[in-house]
Amino acid sequence: MLNRVTLADVAKKANVSTATVSRVIANSSLISKETKKKVQKVIDNLNYVPNSMAQSLTRNSSKIIGIVLNSKDIDPLSNNFFSEILSGICDYLINKDYYTLYIHCNNSETEEEYVKSLVGSRRLDGLIFLRAYDDEKLLKYLENIQFPFSIIGTPNDTSEYIWVDNDNTKTTYTITKKLIEQNKKKNICFVGGPMNLKVTNYRYKGYVKALKEKNISKEYIIESLFNIDTAYDIIREYLRNNRKIDAIVTTDDVLAIASIKACKSLNKRNVIVTGFNNTYLKKTSNYNFTTVDIKVKELGKKACELLIQKIENRLMKKNYAIIQANILWEE
To answer: Coiled-coil ranges per the record (predicted)?
Structure first.
């Protein structure tokens, strides 16, 4: 077994101090170009790989970003939104020489305890929360200790935190309004995730706004987990008991596909169903329905970009970004 090449080995071979080798690796301006070139040549010849943990201690930075998802109400493995947004985040961070740590918790108490432990141990440079929370206790804690984080979603305190989102209320309003005005639908059902999810609430507000503008007082509301089989059972039962429903506005493509299946099983073929998120699941399904391209990768990229600006103490023009969503109409 070959012995691992150490910093001291490089220093000895290059005839410099270990401190000089460390400064060369860190690309310090204190070291001349000639010395950098000489030391780098030795590093290459010896195939020396710097100890990333030691480097992080030296520069007081781990180069690791934690990605947090509390999955109490969400199954990330069955919802393509999360796999797509994780892909966008990781692609961006890799290009910026950051690593990622996925923090997956099943309840708020575990999440808070684990995140505080990681932050206290200085293992992370920052955090990205994959959704906004009604209970912002953990966010307030991080803000108080000035630990950098960003949120994908709209928080309660939009002025203090770093966040990125679409205009979910406006988009759902536009979809619902079109169903009423152009498709002449009057009994429109809203199918969303649990109402404690802020994104569900914002999209619900758009649905309600469109109904009120047209003096439609009757609301049909279904809450479901983002699982096709679970949602199918809930939606089918609701449709059996509410036969006047002639359109369904959903907050996710998973729920849209479950709604279409439920309608077909009840032979309700004139019900128009709309989705949201334009996920891979929709693109590979055999169902044609209106959905919304929320620019998932752009959301992830912008959340990373703003967070790194904060970590590196660079000037931010704004603490938030609204990414323009695109409704993909299916006639």
So the answer is: none
